[in-house]
Structures are given as C-alpha cells and as structure tokens.
Please model this.
Amino acid sequence: MWDGKVRVVSSPEMRTLPRVRLAGKLDRYVLSNGVEMPCLGFGMYMMPANEVGETALRLALELGFRHIDGARNYGNEAMEGRVLAESGIPRGELFLTGKLKNDEQGYEETLAAFERSCEDLQTDYLDLYLIHWPKVGGHEDEWRERVWGTWWAFEKLYAEGRVRAIGVSNFLVHHLETLLERANVMPQVNQIELNPGYQQRETVAWCEHAGVQLEAWAPLGRGHLLGNPVVTDIAGRLGKDAGQVCVRWSLQHGFVTMPKSLHPERVRSNSEVFDFELTEADMVALDALDGPDNYTFHPDRLDEWAERVARAHAESGV
Model:
C-alpha cells in the first residue's frame, strides 16, 4: 500500500506546470501533490477481455509502457490485472489509472466499487483514480450531489493511502467549479478529449491556471486526423506517421496522453514519439485545426450519446 502524504487545498492555485525533456516514454510530469506520472500511457478503452486484448497489452509492456489507463466501464480490469501479474513487472514500476463506473457514483457505492476494481486488478492501491463522467444518464438533475458524495469517497481513499492521486475525467469548467464548492482536495488530474481537432481551450486554460494536470484521450481524433492534409504533410516531412505527429502534439503541449490500439504495428508506432520534435510552425498549423464540434461525447449532451457511441464503435480502428 502506498503511504504518501496528503496535500489539501481549498482553491485553484497559480503555478507553472513542470515540463520534461521528452526523451522516453517513462519521462514524467510531476502532479501538484508531488506524484510523478509517466507522460505516455497505454489506453485500455475497447481492449477486448480476450487473447487479442491480452496480446496488445503484453506488447505494450514489452515496448516499455508502464502507465496503463483503464476504467471499470471498459469491462477488462480482470484481464488487465492478470496480464500485469503474469508480466513479472514490480508493482512499484507501474502507474495504474482506474475510473469509477458511472452508475456506481455516490459515497458508499464508490468505496465498494474501488474494492472490486482493486480485486480484479490484483493490487491494493491505484496510482490515479478518476470520476469517469460528471453526469450520468437518468440522474442529470442530481449530478452535483452525486459528484460531491463520490469525491468525498475519493478523498477518504486518498487520505488512507489507497490512491496516490485523485482526479476527474471529462469535467468542463462549470463541473470543476461545482466540485470545488464542497471539495477539500483539489483534483490533481483532469482527463478530457484533446487532440489537434478538438482542443477545449477554456478547460485547458482553467486547469493550467489551477495546477491540474491535463490528460488527453482520443489523441488521434478517433482516427479522423490520420488523413488530414496538415497532419500528413508534417508527418511526411519528418518521416513519421500521422498518429505519431498527433501524439507528439499532445506531449509538446504538456498533456499526458495514452493512445490505444490492438494492432502491433500501431502499438509500436505510438511508442516511437521521442526521437523527433515538432517545430513552432508545426504546432501553430496543428493548433489551427481546432473545431468546437469535433467532440466524440459531450459531457452535457447525454441525449447524443447512444448515436455517437454506436458511430464511434463502428468507426473505431483500434
């Protein structure tokens, strides 16, 4: 069990986010509580809990990935735990992220859900635990009370050393400000959809001002950026592929990111992003691709989710 110290704050703080020389996938950002978080992770979203998913995760570990981004809602925590146990990698060398399943929000429900996740992952602590979404279908009107109760459970787990860092996922500015009305511990991380096509600049600016580390999910824009001419032109000039350019964009903005794939060549490609650098002109060109409607799932537009989930799964090229 981790026995780190708890750092309690009551309001956003001004701070400059630390930057690292991005020389390898184990380079780390330092969170506001001093915990070191690898800048590149391996995403477990849509990893099937079968031999195919196991093979992809094993390859990621062989390639040096030690930051594994999982979630209860992905339905593969038991598979993840089994592969990690069989790998022989010491637990202290891994950085494991878990996310609370949406329908398990609430104080007591969260504490019970955390134990189930730890049991499946074969660990007695998590490095990072996130509230997966601020709002849950069927509970839109009571989302504030549910988030507050959930966060108080997170704070308890943090104070007891069961979690090294706590945070949120898919929280926009108004969700974060609502959380802080009754929070005792500032979230250390906010994991949101971030890529050159969807940059969420208001939320990014708020988090950077407050010292909340940003994580970028869907760093390749769910594959839609792979054929973008701006991206492909930069990739061709650098002798890299479009996915590597998108991942590198996230890293150079100071975002932790965790690309995912089931395809061995793409898992390997996603790891090879530390031997080149985007120029300032490249970054400006990629920043110009931002569009406000390029989201996958909007946290406040739950009525769109069924259609978008179906489309995302149909289009997925994991």
